[in-house]
From TrEMBL:
Residues 273-592 form the GCVT N-terminal domain. Residues 215-269 form the FAD dependent oxidoreductase central domain. Residues 2-210 form the FAD dependent oxidoreductase domain. One of its GO terms (cellular component) is mitochondrion. Belongs to the GcvT family. It comes from the Eukaryota. This is (Mediterranean fruit fly) hypothetical protein. Residues 612-697 form the Aminomethyltransferase C-terminal domain.
Length: 707
């Protein structure tokens, strides 16, 4: 009925529906600026078009593979059964049982029963003529649901089965749809991979796709559905896709915890310090395919090859150390069992010095005759600065929303080393967060092609490690082995230069690198961008010379806590494509001179005002917050926590939220500061203090080395 209504509406508004006409190929041409869609081929001839939406479900991957695009999608058999008539069930609620991974859905006087088994049948591929086909149900696979259903409701076993439904469904590595523009061909959009949730997501995702096509962007933050959340390497690796899609399927009914980690598809990409991290007993996390240290322990808990949870003839690992550590993080009503350990890392950063391995961060080099023109258009801040300066800036969309926040350093043509490249024209070194690395790269590249800038954009993420040393003692430690003056006069905050380090742990080897005086945690600190082959030597040398001054390792759990405590932003959480720099307190990143993408929207907000604003909320009670908790002002709901951490220096939970007026009007500082605030945590409201800026070091003296 839904499809019929939509097609009738389309025809009424001038659309055409052609049935029994399959698309055999997507036609593209190389324009010199990338591939461009020109039409589709059918058995009855070609159709010229500049826009195609791939909504072909289980066939979506195969359709676009022909022109070199890859979708992380795999078809699986998915089933349910319909019972005989059961007196009394009409009108009763549906049931989903998370322990048995089973559901009851009422259909008239019968019950439809199914679920997500641990051993689904993976398909390779689905025949082209199977669009209305069904498979015979494999009871050896489905029995797990039948057994669970009868334990849940013993009388269910008294009734027979009227029919079985087993069809092909498309599943993805994180159980979320694949949407948005194709990264290889301009004009192709995707809206597929719905993981058996098409009826639930179809209306909303269809609307957002339509807005994407018409306006160039959706009006909701869609990063978690955007296919650019996956990298090229992930999309091309069939084994990774199979493993992760299987785990997501099998865990579909599992509770979602903030710090849960996948077991499938691990060790996919390892940075140059991976072995060093394991030797230091790092508990590893995964982001966008990369392994990164979450925190450091006193024993090993290494990630093992995926055992498929014992399915398909695989044996479960006897070594459950990693899973045991992970289990202690799966909390809601209380702090993680690693809360104190992570606090020790965070406070070491505040009081002494720590080393963060940030090697998985996105690192790009933009170079060419139009590099300055491109930078002026792409970035909201003035990046035409001296080559000794690094600029924090935003990449905006047409409505002023933040598509990325990055640091940008203008380059001189150098020696040809990866950290000091040689080029013709001008060059820029761009660094962005690793969790959205490919999204940032694809966004910049698409805009470069759209505007026709004569530049290249190279991803050097895998070629450079990033070793960050942060804290009051960081300068004293680094100065002992680096070949440049680290004084405020020679290298002020946001300064950068090409220099070298003498590595005492590698027989005094001299290593060239790029040094940036920047901090993601609000401390005196430095990032060392080091060629991958020298990362271990530099890291070990910093550990050795820093030991007398109390240096220690710290992971991303501490880093995110410190960042939130300082009031810095984390893209896709408290900074999204539907948030502008003005709303986020980042107006300083938006220059007034010259044009850049999204400027008109920014200037309009500066003139007219804003209807939401980012604030910081602290709780005096020792209670954990996780994000998404409701925020109340004077008893009225005005927002929710976008991001939530524990601030160890503040010794209290801190969260970021965008606050708006209940009447939808413009908001000002008076409205924010005069309210009384509460945060709803698991159904109970706790009093909160609201701050326009984080209460930790609001004048940023520590970043300047003033303690």
């Amino acid at each position: 009925m839904l499809c019929t209504a939509l097609t009738r509406g389309a025809v009424k508004n001038g659309g055409k529906v052609i049935e029994n006409c399959n698309v055999t190929e997507v036609l593209v041409e190389d324009t010199g600026k990338g591939k461009q869609l020109i039409g589709v081929a059918t058995p009855y001839g070609n159709i010229k078009t500049k826009t195609v939406v791939n909504t072909t479900g289980v066939w979506g991957r195969d359709l676009v593979h022909k022109y070199g695009s890859h979708l992380p999608l795999i078809p699986m058999k998915h089933s349910y059964i319909v019972s005989e008539t059961i007196p009394g069930v009409r009108g009763i609620p549906n049931i989903r049982d998370h322990d048995y991974s089973t559901y009851f859905r009422i259909q008239g006087d019968a019950i439809c029963m199914g679920g997500y088994e641990p051993n689904p049948i993976l398909l390779e591929p689905v025949p082209d003529d199977f669009h209305f086909g069904l498979y015979d149900l494999d009871w050896t696979v489905f029995d797990v649901h039948l057994n669970g259903a009868m334990k849940l409701c013993p009388s269910y076993g008294d009734y027979g089965v009227k029919s079985t439904i087993c069809g092909p469904e498309s599943f993805t590595p994180d159980h979320k749809p694949l949407m948005g523009p194709d990264t290889q061909v301009n004009g192709v959009f995707h809206n597929c991979g719905f993981n058996s949730a098409g009826m639930m997501f179809g209306g909303g995702c269809g609307e957002q796709t339509a807005l994407w096509l018409i306006n160039g962007k959706p009006d909701l933050p869609m990063f978690s559905f955007d296919l650019r959340r996956f990298t090229k390497a992930q999309n091309r690796n069939t084994q990774w896709i199979r493993e992760r899609s299987h785990e997501s399927y099998a865990k579909n009914y599992s509770m979602v915890f903030k710090y849960d980690q996948p077991l499938a598809g691990r060790n996919f990409q390892k940075d140059p310090l991976h072995d060093d991290m394991l030797a230091q007993y790092a508990f590893m996390e995964e982001k966008q395919g990369w392994e990164r240290p979450g925190f450091f322990m006193k024993h090993k808990a290494e990630v093992l090859p995926y055992d498929w949870y014992g399915s398909y003839g695989h044996k479960r690992h006897n070594d459950r150390a990693y899973e045991d550590v992970l289990e202690r993080d799966l909390k809601y009503a209380e702090f993680s069992e690693h809360h104190k350990l992570i606090g020790e890392e965070a406070l070491a950063c505040r009081n002494a010095a720590v080393i963060f391995n940030m090697s998985y961060f996105c690192k790009l080099i933009m170079e060419g005759p139009d590099a300055q023109k491109a930078a002026d258009w792409l970035f909201s801040a003035n990046t035409n600065r001296d080559t000794s300066k690094t600029v924090y800036t935003c990449v905006l969309n047409n409505t002023g929303g933040v598509e990325a926040d990055v640091t940008v350093s203008r380059l001189d043509s150098g020696t040809g080393a990866v950290h000091d490249p040689t080029f013709t024209g001008q060059g820029y070194y761009i660094v962005a967060g690793g969790a959205s690395a490919y999204y940032t790269y694809a966004t910049l590249l698409a805009e470069i092609r759209e505007k026709g800038f004569n530049v290249s954009l190279r991803d050097v993420t895998a070629d450079l490690g990033v070793i960050s040393i942060q804290g009051p003692h960081s300068r004293d430690i680094l100065q002992r082995i680096i070949d440049c003056d680290l004084s405020n006069e020679n290298l002020p905050p946001n300064g950068t230069q090409v220099t070298s380090i003498k590595c005492p742990t590698a027989n005094g080897k001299q290593v060239g690198l790029r040094l940036l005086r920047v901090s993601f945690v609000g401390e005196l600190g430095y990032e060392l961008h080091v060629p991958k082959e020298h990362c271990s030597a530099v890291y070990q040398s910093l550990l050795a010379v820093g030991k007398p001054l109390g240096v220690r390792n710290a992971g991303y759990r501490a880093l995110y806590s410190l960042s939130s405590e300082k009031g810095y932003h984390l893209w896709s959480f408290d900074l999204r494509p539907d948030d502008t720099p003005i709303e986020a307190g980042l107006g300083f990143t938006c220059r007034k001179n010259g044009d850049y993408k999204g400027k008109s929207a920014i200037e309009r907000q500066r003139k007219e005002g804003i209807k939401k604003r980012l604030v910081y909320l602290t709780l005096n009670e020792q209670v954990p917050i996780w994000g998404l908790e409701g925020v109340y002002r004077n008893g009225e709901a005005v927002g929710f926590l976008r991001r939530a951490e524990y601030g160890y220096a503040l010794d209290k939970s801190i969260g970021q939220a965008y606050v708006s007026r209940t009447d939808g009007g413009f908001i000002n500082e008076k409205y924010i500061t005069e309210g009384t605030y509460e945060v709803d945590i698991l159904g109970k409201r706790y009093k909160a203090e609201c701050h326009l800026r984080s209460p930790f070091d609001p004048e940023s003296k520590r970043v300047m080395g003033i303690y």
